């Protein structure tokens, strides 16, 4: 089971909006759960449903049922140090020389690599913020993915990293997160990414290697931050950023251009007086 942006051959994906029909039907997925009778592409199977969102949740409940806080099949390296107040779920893996501090919560099937440090109060593997509007309110799309923390990562205190809806939310090798950082479902961080405090990253974001995000940056869903780019503090990222580019502002644009714009704005009061 997988989302449309990460499907591979053999996967099942659901689609319930005409905007995404072509993308789902032409994706790598082998099975498409869809709410319209259409021609079946070669090599695929279609499941026709009046409500694919509902039926995708049924599949999640069947294949990855909620297990009432079980702690079975957890694998912890003998050199790992875990505070007694930390909570680990079912099928969690913790690597060599990893340190997990007080009151850390790690959800089912999360993978923690070697030489990782996770500071107090952090939550890994919370459910995705993913809902469908109904007449009676919001329906939740159930999460069956994981959080994968690669080797040499350090995660500050009170961070929250949501599991993938169906795939993995990944924090790449050597990346460092400050305190109070949020990372949404299915987001993928590359190697040696640096994120300062109070950054919020939505779901399905791709952040390539050596990117820097400074304090209170916000990143919308479905964007890509190119390798080595830098986002200055309190910026709002609403579209892709090219590799190596420095951006600032909300919406974030080229930093030099933004600074020129701010300098021009500071000159306006004097200009008005002269007029």
Automatic annotation (TrEMBL):
The question of whether Transferase is a record keyword is answered with yes
List the record's Gene Ontology CC terms alphabetically: membrane
Residue span, UDP-3-O-[3-hydroxymyristoyl] glucosamine N-acyltransferase non-repeat region domain: 2-62
Gene Ontology molecular-function annotations: N-acyltransferase activity
For this protein, the parts annotated as crossing the membrane are: none
**What UniProt keywords apply to this chain's record, in alphabetical order?**
Acyltransferase, Lipid A biosynthesis, Lipid biosynthesis, Lipid metabolism, Repeat, Transferase
The reply on keyword Transferase is yes
User: Please, one GO biological process term?
Assistant: lipid A biosynthetic process
Q: What is this protein called?
A: UDP-3-O-[3-hydroxymyristoyl] glucosamine N-acyltransferase
